[in-house]
Amino acid sequence: MAPSEQSWVPPSRPVGIPTTSPDVPPATSTPARRYGKIQNEGAIRQRWIEDSTDPTCQIQPSTLTVDDLLTSHWYVRTSHNNIPFQVAENTFALGYTNGAVYNQTLTQNYAGGELGLAGCENIYDILVGKGLIIAEGIFRSDGPQFSQIARAHMQEVAEPQSLRHFYVCDIVNIETKNFVEKVLYSSRNDLTWPPVCAAPLIWEYNTSEYQGLLGTRVGKCAVYLVLEIFPRGSTD
């Protein structure tokens, strides 16, 4: 049985919200290929973030604003809420405020007239604060990507490059769900689903598991968010 390749979250409480990203240099080793195509796709996305010269990356910094959405007849409703309970303990431990001080924005419109899309909705439910984005609802038929819309909403409350933590809460993507439940949390990693861990697991940078997660649809959202906010190859 293959040994587990994850480490535990340290029990000590972090002090405040980091003002800079960890100094993570480009990978100098290639993780074992344990998860097939989904890991291969994640490895490509990891390389896009690390290497500003990789010509296969077509993702550019986003300039979309909330005003652009309103001009394009998107419905945007913002309220002030606290962090959702599913991730509250972890986020409060990172130093985020426990209170209804975050912008929670519902953004939606109807898809265009292409065959099979007309009348379908685009819906995004996103909570933002300085350093933090929490996605609670993503349903895209056409139009801007989730990452572009999330960045636009964050820009309303803070400099987008203040982003340090991104959570996905109550979003079920079948591909991601199957990878996490049936592959990642499986006997090959000495794990079971549902997890019985005393603390969240950390899937370390430049491991097979990390790349596998980046290869999922939810991982793609995270990668696009990073690429549209931060300069490629930057650790700032």
Instruction: Provide the residue-averaged pLDDT.
Output: 87
Share of residues in strands: 15-25%
Structural class: alpha+beta
| Global outline | globular
Helix/strand order: EHHEHEEEHEHEHH
Low-confidence stretches: 1-22
Return Rg in Å: 18 Å
Number of H- or I-type helical stretches? 7
Strand line-up across the major sheet:
2-3-4-5-6
Terminal Cα span? 38 Å
Q: Into which percent range does the helicity of residues fall?
A: 25-40%
Number of strands: 7
Task: Describe, in plain words, how this protein is organized in 3D.
This protein has 236 residues and is α+β, with helices and mostly antiparallel strands. Helices cover 30% and strands 17% of the residues. It is built from 7 helices and 7 strands. It has helices at 36-50, 66-71, 85-93, 146-155, 174-184, 208-214, 217-229; strands at residues 7-8, 75-81, 102-110, 121-129, 132-139, 165-168, 201-202. The strands form 2 sheets. Strands 2-3-4-5-6 form a 5-stranded mixed beta sheet. A two-stranded antiparallel sheet has the order 1-7. Strand 5, helix 4 (146-155) and strand 6 (165-168) form a beta-alpha-beta unit. Helix 1 (36-50) crosses helix 6, helix 1 runs parallel beside helix 7 and helix 4 (146-155) packs across helix 7 (217-229). The longest helix is centred in the first third of the chain and has 15 residues, at 36-50. The radius of gyration is 18 Å and the shape is globular. Mean pLDDT is 87; it is low at 1-22. Residues 18-31 have a biased composition (Polar residues).
